[in-house]
Amino acid sequence: MSDSTYSWNGGTGSASSPSNWTLESGTTNTPNVPDSDDTIIMTSGEAQFTDTALPGPFIGTDGGMVVWQGGQIDMINSGSASGTAGIQANTFVQLTNTVAAVGSLTSTGTTTLAGTIDADANGTLSYTILAGDADNQGLIEAQNGGTLVIASDGTGTFSNVGSRDSGTGVLVSSGGSILVTASIGADGGYWGLGYGGATAGTIEVNTPMPSTGTFDFLSHGDTLILDQVSTFQGSIIFFDTDTLDLGQINLGTVSYDGNNLTLEDPSGATIAVLNAPTMYNWTTFPVSPGTYTVVNDGTTSDGGMYFSKAANGDQILSTEQPVACFVAGTRIATDRGEVAVEDLEVGDRVRTVLGGKAEPIIWIGHRTIDCMRHPVAKQVWPVRIAAGAFGRGKPSRDLFLSPDHAVYVEGVLVPVKYLINGSSVVQVPQAGVTYYHVEVARHDVLLADGLPAESYLAGADRSIFANNDGAVTLHPDLSSRVWEAEGCAPLVVTGAAFEAARRQVRLPGRAASRRRSKAA
Questions:
Q1: CB neighbours of 385 closer than 8 A, spacing ≥ 6?
Q2: What's the CA gap between 335 and 36, in Å, rounded?
Q3: Which of 246, 208, 199 is nearest to 224 (CA)?
């Protein structure tokens, strides 16, 4: 064995044939093909590893590496008694850490994955089990925007083992995503979401899952999509300010007993029962047992759960709390004049409406959100308030807020999304947005481009911001509320006070016509 580097010549053929390889560096092997501790570079073509585990024929303990930037690798067990196929222990197969690549991996016959498969750096890897069982005893992961599809064709099945402690199984993090459509064998195994990254990840399950499958939420803001929720028998653990996409169902009520989550349609018929023994929410820690009626507005909390509909009609259940924010460029009134929110610093003094004095900033949160990848984009698209919508200089120019940011009107706070009228207050779809929020010692009202709007409410979830001290929520929900204990004014969305606040919103041209009338 030689620790050499070989590149595939780009054609279709056997990995055991020396004519298909080029030695790039190191010592020539005999025969001149990669050994178990060598490095393989794959950019195109189709390499067929028959009865040979990657990366080469001589099974050792050191393991090698596959640097994969395109093409197809076939793992084939011909059925011979001495044949082995799959990936050797301590071998790292990566697609790819340098460029956005597309690769295909196939498995035929019984294969064993004892090493690591990594879909990385925005690469896309399709892993298809054509026949037999592909037994994952190592680690399969998607991270840094990488996409992995685990599928089966015909009679192939995918078996998966592993655990949180061993770091094995199927894991996703840092903006990675995994779609599994393969038939699952007897072992559903371990699936980890959001491990070890600054941002979380997404796993989509579009196949029946046996009770042996465990889905473990390792950070905040992960998303688990269950396209066939009625056939999902696995366990969901440590669901903590995360999102469940339950697919195309008509959800009426949800019952939670502290262990099982029962989903019912509006008639009371059971859709599915999910084993979810550890569900948490930042304000009702843990999620409260009970039976709750589904209100799909994304902000009504029942026992610490929020419900909404995705753009594609999927039913969303989340324990992620939305938080109110200013869009970058908003000017905040300070003791030294108006300052763009992105230029504020901790210690700067901002004018408070209710406190009546300038208060020092104790924390500033900021986060750039990719609305195109958010499961419910409407929850994060900004709302534009036209200049003068609440009277002269209120705001002094068009103001952009997150949908759940409350404005102060007639002595109450109203989330701006409830004031949308299609003209002077509208939601603006866009690909991405950067949000900021400003925290003072006590919840208060600030002046944002001249319009009274709330400060950050202490006690909400800082994990949605990039500059918090822990993991960052991947798909933030921007409407968190801890009003009963800490809100500076009543929060209303119905009733006489709410209607009075709505009447203060002017339609375009109304303020201008009033000014012209007075001038005449």
A1: 395, 398, 399, 400, 401, 407, 416, 424, 425, 451
A2: 68
A3: 246
Q: How far is CA 116 from CA 23, 65, 97, 157, 171, in A?
A: 24, 9, 14, 19, 11
pLDDT in tens, the chain (520 residues): 458 999 999 999 999 999 999 999 999 998 899 988 899 999 999 999 998 888 876 555 567 899 888 899 999 998 754 447 888 888 889 887 666 688 999 999 999 999 999 998 878 999 999 999 999 999 999 988 889 999 998 789 999 988 888 889 999 987 789 999 999 998 999 999 986 554 568 999 999 999 999 999 887 678 899 999 999 999 999 877 678 999 999 999 999 998 999 999 999 999 999 999 878 765 455 787 888 888 876 655 556 788 888 878 899 888 765 567 899 999 999 999 999 999 999 999 999 999 899 999 998 988 777 777 666 677 788 999 999 999 999 999 999 999 888 999 999 999 898 899 889 999 999 988 899 989 999 999 999 999 999 998 754 444 444 444 433 333 333 333 444 446 788 888 778 888 899 899 987 654 444 433 333 3
Cβ-count burial of 27 within 10 angstroms (0-12 exposed, 13-18 middle, 19+ buried)? exposed
pTM (two decimals): 0.71
CA distance 196 to 200: 9
Q: Which helix (H) or strand (E) holds 486?
A: helix 483-486
SS3 489: coil
| CA atoms of 421 and 430, how far apart (whole Å) | 19
Q: What is the torsion angle, in degrees rounded to the nearest 10, for the CA atoms of residue 398, residue 404, residue 409 and residue 412?
A: -170
Contact 473/242 with Cβ under 8 angstroms? no
